[in-house]
Amino acid sequence: MLLLLPPSETKVQGGTGRSLLLGALRFPELTRVRSRVIAALLELSADQEEAVTALKLGPRGHGEVAINRAVRRSPTVPAIDRYTGVLYDALDAGTLSETARDFAARHLVIQSALFGPIGALDPVPGYRLSHSSKLPGMRLPAVWSAPAGAALTAVGGLVVDLRSEGYAELAPISAPERSVYVRVVSVDDTGRRRALNHFNKKTKGLFARAILENAEDFDDVEDLAAWGDAAGFTLTPGAVAGEWDLLVPAAASAAAASPTAASRPA
After folding, report:
1. Helix H segments across the chain?
2. How do the domains of the chain map onto residue ranges?
3. What residue ranges carry the coiled-coil annotation (predicted)?
């Protein structure tokens, strides 16, 4: 089984590991493509103004260009510990059990725009690049799609895809009979469903954490859905073939989105 997650623009900086070693990353067959994308990022980063524009950085993000310039020599941390933000805060990798982290090492893959798909415990440096970023002479979907998609498809087994659409395009799975794309939707008392934004990421993080802590290699989505029901996650077929909806009660998502929710007494 593969559990696929998107990365995050926000990341922990610094690190404790040695500098980037492409050969240490999962899917070594992607090393040549990774080198090309890194070279393009370094070329872009040589021009501060051009890089700020291409990476769509606000005034507070200009320092990200210097971080990109140092991507080959800066210290690393495991990928699952590098990313922050709503999804990764909910995943809370630092508090995962040893069994869960071991399961993540074998089954969790994060879709990076810079490195392609990487293993949860792969050592990676800080960087800034998203699926929609523009690099000199290349379009990221065109560069990554075929080789990264083939690498993921070759793994075999059930693929549980929690990536956003933009990152899924960087490595499409060519095995629809054993892959499931999960969308987080709210459902009200009438059964009406609608897509979520902020709560989508939180729910995916909680769902991924539960799967890792459960540490079961599911054979198919029906087995995953049956486990989900017992674990408090409702997973049902979506409106499009190959897609499943992870349901969140409308009242729960509305409460979580409320600006005053955090200040209410527990």
Report:
1. 31-45, 48-54, 63-69, 79-82, 86-91, 98-107, 140-153, 165-168, 198-214, 221-231, 250-257
2. 2-263
3. none
